[in-house]
Amino acid sequence: MSLKTSRLSPRIWRLLGIFILALIVRLVYNIYIAQHRIIDVGDSFYYLSAGRSLARLVRESQSIQAFFGQLCAAAQYAPGSLNSFSSLALSDRLLIDGPIYPSYLAAVFLVTGKALSTAALNVHQLTFALANSLLDACLAAAVAYLGEISFGLASGLLAGIFWCFYLPAVINTQQCYGEPVVALLLTLFVVALFRLTRGRLTHDDTAQFADTVATARSKSFLFSLIGGVLAGLVMLAKPAFVVLPPLLLALHFIALAFSGRLRRKRLSLASMFLGVILALAPWLLYTSTVTGAPRLIVNRAPGYNLYIGNYLPTDGWKTWPVVDGIPDSVADAKRFIVSEFDRRPLELVSLTLRKIPRLFAGVWNDFHLSAFAVSYNLQNLFQALYLLLATLALMIFTAGKLRGVKPFSYSAALTMTWAVAFHFIYVLFEPVPRYAFTAMPLVLTLAAAGLVAFARALAAVPSKKLRQRTAWQYLFLILLFAVFSSALYCFWTPVGLFVLLVKNATQLRSLSALLVFTIFICLGFGFGRLFKRTNLGGFLCYWIGAKTFLLTALVAVCAALSEPAYLEWSHKLGGATTATVTTHLALPDLGGSEPATVFLLVDAQGEDGPPALAFTLPDRQRVSPAPISLYEVTAASKDIPTLLNLQGRMMDRDQRSFRQWWLFPIRAKSLHFGGDNLITVMAAQPKAKVKIFGDYVKPSPESGACESADLPSLTSFSWSKGFLTADCRDPRVYENCYFRGRATAAYLNAERSTEPTAGALRLRVAVPMLGRAVTAANLTGQNLVLFDAPAERLVSGAVPYSLLFASPVKVFSTPVASASRLHFRAKLRTIHPDVPASIAISLDVGKARTQYNPVWLPSCIKLEKEWREVDFTTVLPADTKYWSELSAHLLLSPYQSDRFYLHGKETLRDAIYVKDLRLEILPPLNPGGRPSGVLKLL
After folding, report:
1. pLDDT of 356-372, one tens digit each?
2. Which of 156, 397, 703, 855 is an S-S bond match for 413, by CB 3.0 to 4.6 Å?
3. Per-residue confidence (pLDDT) for residue 846, from 0 to 100
4. Is the dihedral of CA 304, 306, 312, 315 positive or negative?
5. How far is the CA of 551 from the CAs of 390, 409, 583, 891, in angstroms?
6. Residue 210's CB: how many other CB atoms inside 10 A?
């Protein structure tokens, strides 16, 4: 064996070991742990559609001419327009999604030989998960290699291990998004760039790898060509990345020149340029054919994303229903942003800063899944640790005083930092952590290098006692920064510390902002003192640290000053507590025109389902009405229940357990209109766990005019805000809601408190606006029983017929009024509590037996070995006058459908017991007329 081979072999074995470790972790997760299939909605659906169409074209084309003839069909819509964004034509999809990721998916289809006519994500989902696992294992090896050539052997190994166990990467092998592929391409490009420049710095560096002059030249050409091809692929992978490779190339050479290491300029720019041409030429030729002009940028509707991300009324969130006035071009979106900046510059700047944590503070884990017993919140904590370590690594390598650090590390750290900082471009749009995923391999590489550098710096401290004390202080500051940052971005607020001192919103915000700013500045000074003690200081080091901590403090201050959620409080009812909340509710006089039934509108959240609340009303009557989601009875977007059901199924939660506005129907006579109402709110059952929300700031004094307040929207819903970022508390944007009746002071545990301690409770009264009366017979005063099964029954996955309850023999001919309520009640328990149960109900209506499937059924039901009473009500649609000839079908399953697809054999042992089951239709809440879908907020 030659000297060269013996020196390279250990590196190969190290990288192979990292690859195998990463692959094993991902295979274990996908084969044994994962309980959910890939979700084919949104971008994932369009990516898969393009990949499937491309694979079908390859498989079915009779000749090369036929393949290119269909591939180069003219685009149906202008690239980047809103119409093109939802088009399924292959040309439109490639222009929007680019050629890189659809080609990868098409290759998976073709290599595995999967049928293209079936739903790819049901039975075949494991195919994509395994392909993604193999790809991500390659990325782990690339990260290890990048760390080794940049910062040394120890940093490379640690970086590879970091990526092996970086859980967002593991979890998202279950998804079909292009970011993992782009992350691999970007990392490989940086590797090629560093390997080329690092190997040609000095004669000694070249000799270290035992390269002859001829070998060095051939490697120079090869790495330049490969780097050029990778640069071109990165440019085609994402629209924003079209300028990233040339920018990194220029910045890297500037860093090399600044560090004094650029002694030999033998980089073959011609060969790299040739590689870029080889990658871009086919795409330019293709776009010229299908659009009439060559297009370099992959156009994913930037005008739409730019407009939404800077739309102040929705705080930069994409909402359902979609906001009006969305432009079709980037130029129109830019003009809109300029006009907004002229009118409200501070608000727009604040929004831009607050979007930074939306991009980086949370991990890419859209469904908040745990993996290997690590929860979503703990994953966010590790994310903060990685980001802080990466920042400290940059500070250390710019200090230039650390022994054992290779000279090349300075320029490598700067180049990787610039690549990470480039992702801040997404702050101009609607950022989510998925967009920052492509930066995380570089972040983890820097974090590993920073950790190793810390260890070396501590080892250089002469005194053992001082070394131990410094290590504990470093650990304390790092953990404190990570915990505080994670809590802050998840809406922890210091407002409650000052609520007893002041009641003014401006003062509360100012004090909170001052406290947050002080904490971050103190953390910065703490790190500065420790850096000085460990001989890591330097002008550039302190300058970078000061900028970082000031930016972090500024982001936190902007959130404290302008984020409405920081002025709200929450209070838990039920469970281990017996707490109650009493509030005064002022209502206007309606002149006797109020209907028989009104609704108490409450901002609340139940732990396992709808919030079970009870109310003591002014007439001293205690009522516990069944809650109804506001989205059910208003003209909300049809996408909302679909998105909530999807989120609930993937998180193994009842989608009704997500925070929203809830309606509790009560008799109007129970309230005093035109005066004050004393209402006490409590948990309806001892075991019920409910959280209610209110505002710290006391309402304005009594006024005859309509009042307004920043409240969670009654109409707008944002999936991104609710689930896709670190701001994962509330899927509703805040808006000005106008009302006349309002809650005033709230008293917690009123029997022991005489002073208001929490400001105002979010409790309102809504009145249904009635349409014309139903002429057919209603279910006035009676219930229509569809199923009544009081006897105990076993529902087993091993006995398929036990899942489906037999349909009633007779068809009910009694006319059922629209807006009637479908009510399900049963007692359930399970043998294996770790698996959630599910329920499906369908109704056959009319002589044509048209099928109707309620959309507000619980997405999953968490059961225990003890009996649990499951009770829910959903409102039938109000778009018809009445329903007739009704029959029902009920499917009760002891497992989720995803579990059946992924772990079919395990579902054979799943079983639940059911008794006292009853499915019935209740009369409408207002039998004298049918609701028009409009609620009037008093």
Report:
1. 888 988 899 999 899 99
2. 397
3. 75
4. positive
5. 16, 25, 41, 54
6. 14
